[in-house]
Amino acid sequence: MPDILYQDSILIAINKPAGWPAQPDKTGDTSALEWAEKECNQSLHPVHRLDRPASGVLLFAKTKAAMTQLQQQFQEQTVEKDYLAVVASLPKDPEGTLVHYLQKNASKNRAYASETEQPDTDRAELRYRVLGSSDRYHLLEIRLLTGRHHQIRAQLAAIGCPIKGDVKYGARRGNRDRSIHLHAWKLAFEHPGSGEWMTLEAGVPEGDAVWEALRGLKQDAQDG
What we know:
Blueprint: E1 3-7, E2 11-16, H1 32-40, E3 45-46, E4 55-61, H2 64-75, E5 80-87, E6 95-105, E7 110-114, E8 122-133, E9 138-144, H3 151-158, E10 182-190, E11 197-201, H4 209-223
Parallel strand pairs: 4-10
Antiparallel strand pairs: 1-2, 2-4, 3-4, 5-9, 5-10, 6-7, 6-8, 8-9, 10-11
């Protein structure tokens, strides 16, 4: 089940479990939006997206005015979006910036990354750093600088580092629960009501052996 990370008169933020759709879809499965609406007993407005197989911070607005203000922050790229990703292959460099041009294929629900700009592509940029490694896997911290469809998944796959469990983007095998090891760790933005700078943080999924093995690396990054 989701956890409520923050709630006030105009916002609610939850920690979305992997496997939950952010909004209602054709499967009919309970969505994070529907769950949150029941929790606060009112209609909510989605502010941003989070892929179904991923987990982490998901923000909803309780008013249209708050939604509009927050979406403007996303469009202006003033929102700080930090993710954690588990990969089986290390990037060539321990930290760096990735720039690709992504083309979305709606029928296949995936994005294709190119190093050169092509017709109908969108520029995608992120920064990453390797936080550390376990016996088999590596933990990356990612600052998302643009917000494209499947951006982190497509860009990591393009450098030969697909996310654990993400068979759509080249992982050797899927996770049993169809999740992927991508977690929206932190979201920082200007509160649309008070104007104060807010940072919301979501804990990684519990009960997952890989996340547990890498949990200490995440804590080291937080302390640093």
